[in-house]
Amino acid sequence: MKHTQKPFMAELQKSKRSNGNPYTATAAASAATIPAAALAGPVAVDNSEVLKAIQEVGAKLDRFLTMDVQQIEQIQTEVADISGRIKATKVEMAALRHPLAGEDRFIQASQELSAVVSSTEAATNTIMGCAEELEEIVNELKASTSDGYQKDRLGDMHEVVVRIYEACNFQDLTGQRITKVVRALSFIEERIESMMNLWNRREFEAMPLPPSVTKMDGELELHGPSEEAQSGNISQADIDALFA
Amino acid sequence: MKILVVDDYATMRRIVRNLLTQIGYTDIDEAGDGVSALAKLRESKFGLIISDWNMEPMTGLQLLKEIRADSKLAGTPFIMVTAESKTENVIAAKQAGVNNYIVKPFNADTLKQKIQSVIGG
Question: Quick check: A125 and B14 CB within 8 A?
Answer without folding.
Answer: yes
